[in-house]
Design brief:
The chain has 268 residues and is of the alpha/beta class. It contains 8 helices and 7 strands. A 7-stranded mixed β-sheet has the order 3-2-1-4-5-7-6, sandwiched between helices. α5 (139-149) links the parallel β4 and β5.
Length: 268
């Protein structure tokens, strides 16, 4: 289902009202709380925002917190067209509502492949990723690269939009977080059932346990939890029975967080 003009206008209204900025600030606050027991002061951290996105809200908030933050994403490729201009306007609205300078004071945005990071080994204290891991088609390669460029004892904070949740197909609505209502004629969890709606963005379709298994190969898991639930009112007994391979927890978890640490090598 393509995004409608009404949804774009509603999204713009959420930017103007500060609703979107408030949500991003909440994510940043949760991340700060999660990493505080294991990390130094923000101003001392060298951070990589993995898959920063066209709007870059977390990159911006990390920078405002005093971190030396880098962003990497294919969308960082310089180009001029209508969509680039629209995103520039949206970013300015975000920065205004986030209460930070309208211009990036020290831009460190790199166009590159997250599965082949253009950084030296042990370069970062913290790697953060919000709503990006679900789009990485070679998760093991990305996790391997994250482990390579993190310093020993460094942290990764990954907040993942799980495919199994009601909005996990990225094709039903862009204006509700969490998703509570479906467009007319759309079945709940269509992407796990009949797939009548096209999926127009790359998605790896990984499940919660797959991420955990992969992260455990290279990191010590410090914390993992569901940060946002959605769809509980949509999950009828009939749908739950039809989707029996999935448990209720993963069907209703819209944002799954993993906080992990790269092991420190023990002295010989």
């Amino acid at each position: 289902m393509s995004t409608t003009l009404g949804e774009y206008l509603q999204y713009a209204g959420q930017l103007l009202s500060g609703f979107r900025a408030a949500g991003e600030k909440q994510i940043a606050a949760e991340r700060a709380q999660d990493i505080a027991p294991y990390a130094g002061a923000p101003a001392s951290l060298r951070v990589l925002d993995l898959g920063n996105g066209s709007l870059r809200p977390q990159y911006t908030l990390l920078q405002a917190a005093g971190c030396a933050v880098y962003g990497i994403d294919w969308v960082n490729r310089p180009r001029r067209n209508f969509f680039k201009t629209a995103y520039a306007i949206a970013r300015a609205l975000y920065r205004w509502k986030l209460g930070v300078p309208l211009r990036d004071p020290v831009p460190r945005l790199i166009c590159g492949d997250v599965a082949r990071l253009p950084f030296a080994a042990e370069s970062f204290d913290l790697i953060t990723s919000v709503a990006a891991f679900e789009h990485f088609l070679d998760v093991p390669a990305v996790v391997s690269e994250v482990a390579r460029v993190l310093k020993p004892g460094g942290l990764i904070y990954a907040r993942i939009h799980l495919f199994a949740c009601p909005s996990g197909g990225h094709n039903v609505k862009i204006t509700e977080i969490p998703l509570r209502r479906l467009p007319a004629g759309v079945d709940a969890w269509d992407h796990l059932r009949r797939r009548r709606l096209p999926i127009d963005v790359p998605l790896n379709e990984w499940r919660k346990e797959q991420y955990l298994v992969e992260f455990r190969k290279r990191f010590e898991i410090l914390k993992d939890y569901c940060a946002m639930r959605e769809g509980e009112q949509l999950l009828t007994p009939e749908i739950e029975s039809e989707l029996a391979p999935y448990n209720r927890d993963e069907l209703t978890c819209g944002a799954y967080v993993i906080v992990a640490r790269k092991p420190v090598a023990k002295p010989a």
